[in-house]
Amino acid sequence: MTTTSSGKPLRADALRNRxxxxxxxxxxxxxxxxxxxxxEVARRAGxxxxxxFRHFPTKESLLEAVLVALLERLAAQARDLASAADxxxxxxxxxxxxxxxxxxxxxxxxxxAEAGVDAREATGRTGPDVKxxxxxxxxxxxxxxxxxxxxxxxxxxxxxxxxxYAAGRAGGSDDVLRIAFDGLRPQGGTADQAAARR
Amino acid sequence: MTTTSSGKPLRADALRNRxxxxxxxxxxxxxxxxxxxxxEVARRAGxxxxxxFRHFPTKESLLEAVLVALLERLAAQARDLASAADxxxxxxxxxxxxxxxxxxxxxxxxxxAEAGVDAREATGRTGPDVKxxxxxxxxxxxxxxxxxxxxxxxxxxxxxxxxxYAAGRAGGSDDVLRIAFDGLRPQGGTADQAAARR
DNA sequence: GTACAATCGGAGTTTCCGCTCCGCATCCGA
DNA sequence: TCGGATGCGGAGCGGAAACTCCGATTGTAC
Lengths: 198, 198
What we know:
Chains A, B: This is TetR/AcrR family transcriptional regulator. The structure is a homodimer. By secondary structure, chain A is mainly alpha-helical.
């Protein structure tokens, strides 16, 4: 991450500017949505527009870089929790934390959706990372009996994106989260069986 | 809905064109997302751009009209199911139907989100309609013991929006739907749940 | 049938935004 | 310290999309 795509080492100031731009982009996109203008990012970063476009030749590539950074941070958080004492608590805690973040930062939701569908270039590389990290978190929780056994990382990621979306819009995210958690726990039987039993 | 905002009766052709524009807008926004151009809508409707802007002075107002139409249709569907034989089936069937629609029509998701937050002018009038219709559906299902008793229409609407969003992006919508349904059912109260709730 | 008003159509205007270009500033190796 | 290479800044280009305006057209009352 310290070189350009052509392999040349970057000058010190260029490296600094690249970081400034990335941080500013993250702020701006989080606050105003992904349709915020590149000029706004440049202003926030305290650099010229030309600088932004030199480091990220396309607005799409800038967005992608921001999303990748978000996803990497998510993956790191998930990995940190992989060795927690209580697997169930680790899994649900991670879930809740992501949703809480998404409530204010719309970009997180987009990032999660992106990770689910990928099709993008760079996210196609970190997307699986997130899914893998969530996967181990999920597996441990399942082995501990805290989470139902009949779902995989894809379903969790999709649900995460959906609940995050809901939390970002509506106010009462706690209740929705509770419903999702209950749905994720081991069920007393299949849907039909449960219905027949009552 | 047959007069302009100034109260004058509309000419017959104007009325026809207005309907054509609305239908075309619904199609276009469903297919290409809400960022589709007004010109595209006009082309699809077979009218000039000027006509579109006369009936809907702003793109936002056009979008709003489309969303209101969607919400009204949703509310009508919900009301029709309010007298179904099996309240649980009615509730979950409605839920599944909405999600299935959202998988292809992104606009539905936006409409639901809009209904949850409103803040808009016209949706502020039909949003409550949807919520009320869902409310009766929910209440009957709750009284029949098919849905947990500790949630209200707001939570259902939010969850509906979130799951619809997830279904529209990721592929495996069935599994996510299953998780949501299980979360919506009355909870038997596993040891963990009982411990967590108290 | 006629006249008038309402409506239509679409070229043109305005605004906004992604992106380029190139003279100037800054860095860094010798 | 000095010179070449690298990076910076921001005016400006190109195009897309929302919205306006007015002559042509069409519906409707009499």
